[in-house]
Design a protein that fits this description.
By secondary structure, this protein is an all-alpha fold. 81% of the residues lie in helices and 0% in strands. It contains 18 helices and no strands.
Length: 472
């Protein structure tokens, strides 16, 4: 049952700006850490002497934890208060970063990273849920666009900031930087996010959460290691079997639970279903760029590491610039139109990327990445606006978790499919011949274009009626 007296209303534009600013700063910090910590992995491996399969868990820990626990915390936000969970999540993130800075063994560092990931899983789904609940529907697209821009800037600056700290202070300083900034954001959150936020007294779907915690991580782990260990390797087959067991059990539990973790009834809304399909397909075709483009720039076109980094930064920069504009247009024009335009721009960029070869100029690669980034910037806030307009406010936390988790899983699947297509196209020559790599890349991304065309069709349809539902 909703507790109206515990909802903290936004009373002034100054308070609105404070909440938006703090939430965007936290998002910047969270996504900056992915890139900055990733840069430190070779130094961490050198100091502790772990195998690559062990070191990659520092990154994989965040992906698996966020993707899985986001669902649980998305529903728990309704029971305990979204703002309360957001405060705890940001504080846990800062505490985990501090523990990482003082770690003297790989086990300690992995434990610290687990604390950071737990905080991220708690705070991230609350971020967009709080923003959607705090701002009126006619301004929601603009706010979500600014939030998406903060995420893109965090992604863009992470590797550079991490590299600077690694060069002048060593990898612990990357964690200390996250601790100091995380502590500052925590204090700001405690000041501006008054009260627990809306909550309801309801039963928590413990068995559903347990089944999801078994099945979803197993699926992500199988998809992650299948390409390296082989799809028929015993650990991969075992992970897929465990994933099937857990996910099938999860669906059965959700269909029979009194208060399910994910109410399957909300998928009957064509607006929400269409928005989620658009997001999934869009992530599926754009995430492989992060894997393929660095290798293409350095191994095929001969760009230096520094130059490659600068060119790759064009995509998140374009995303950061386009997101606020996309959100504002979604408010003022039509979310369906902006969503469809953004996805079309993304697919155009993917199609152009599929034409790049051994003689392509570096400037052309930069233009293509800019188009892809702009497409992501336009469709992200528009699709989120449509999604939030299609559910009740009490489901904002769960919806935010879906948007984050589904996107992550789709991106992982997209990368897996792309690698499989490239292997099928060039086989053993893939890593030995620049021409073979370029041809394999062209084949793989050309195969992703039809998926993008489906996403365009769904995007144009899913926004129909979004304006009429914007009062939800």
């Amino acid at each position: 049952m909703t507790q109206p007296d515990l909802v903290i209303p936004i009373r002034s534009r100054a308070e609105e700006r404070a909440i938006l600013t703090v939430t965007c700063l936290a998002a910047f910090l969270f996504f900056n850490s992915f890139g900055s910590i990733g840069v430190a992995l070779p130094a961490i491996q050198k100091q502790f002497g772990n195998r690559l399969s062990e070191i990659q868990w520092i990154t994989l820990m965040g992906v698996v934890t966020i993707s899985t626990l986001s669902f649980c915390f998305g529903r728990a936000g309704g029971r305990f208060g979204q703002r309360r969970l957001y405060k705890v999540g940001v504080a846990l993130y800062a505490a985990g970063a501090g523990l990482g800075g003082i770690s003297t063994s790989f086990v300690q560092l992995l434990g610290a990273r687990a604390v950071m990931a737990l905080g991220l899983a708690m705070a991230l789904p609350m971020s967009t849920a709080i923003l959607a609940a705090s701002f009126e529907p006619k301004r929601r697209g603009q706010v979500l666009g600014l939030f998406a821009s903060a995420v893109a800037i965090g992604r863009m600056t992470g590797p550079a900031l991490g590299g600077f700290l690694l060069e002048f202070g060593g990898w612990p300083w990357i964690f200390w930087m996250n601790f100091i900034l995380g502590l500052a954001v925590t204090l700001a959150v405690l000041k501006f996010f008054r009260g627990p936020g809306e909550y309801r007294v309801e039963v928590f779907d413990t068995w559903g959460a347990l089944a999801l915690l078994i099945g979803y991580p197993a699926l992500l782990i199988a998809l992650t290691f299948g390409g390296t260990l082989g799809w028929l390797a015993a650990p991969v087959i075992g992970s897929f079997a465990l994933a099937a067991l857990g996910l099938v059990g999860f669906v059965w539990i959700e269909l029979h639970a009194v208060k399910p973790l994910i109410d399957v009834a909300i998928f009957r809304d064509p607006l929400l279903a269409g928005a989620l399909v658009t997001i999934v397909l869009s992530h599926l075709i754009n995430h492989p760029i992060a894997l393929a483009a660095p290798l293409y720039l350095q191994n095929v076109l001969g760009a230096s590491g520094l130059l490659s980094g600068l060119i790759l930064a064009i995509l998140p920069l374009s995303n950061a610039l386009a997101s606020p504009l996309g959100g504002r247009l979604a408010d003022r024009v039509d979310a369906r139109t902006i969503n469809g335009f953004g996805v079309a721009l993304l697919v155009l960029g993917i199609a152009c990327y599929a034409t790049l070869g051994t003689a392509s100029h570096l400037s052309l690669v930069g233009v293509v990445l800019a188009v892809i980034g702009a497409g992501i910037g336009f469709f992200t806030p528009a699709s989120q606006k449509i999604a939030f307009a299609s559910v009740r406010q009490e489901d904002y936390g769960v919806l935010a978790a879906m948007l984050s988790s589904f996107g992550t899983a789709a991106g992982t699947i997209g990368i897996t499919i792309t690698v499989a297509l490239m292997d099928a196209a060039s086989g053993s020559q893939l890593w030995h011949s620049p021409a073979a790599y370029a041809a394999a890349q062209q084949f793989a991304f050309a195969c992703l274009v039809p998926v993008g065309l489906v996403a365009i069709g769904v995007a144009l349809k899913c926004g129909r009626g979004a304006a009429s539902n914007s009062t939800h």
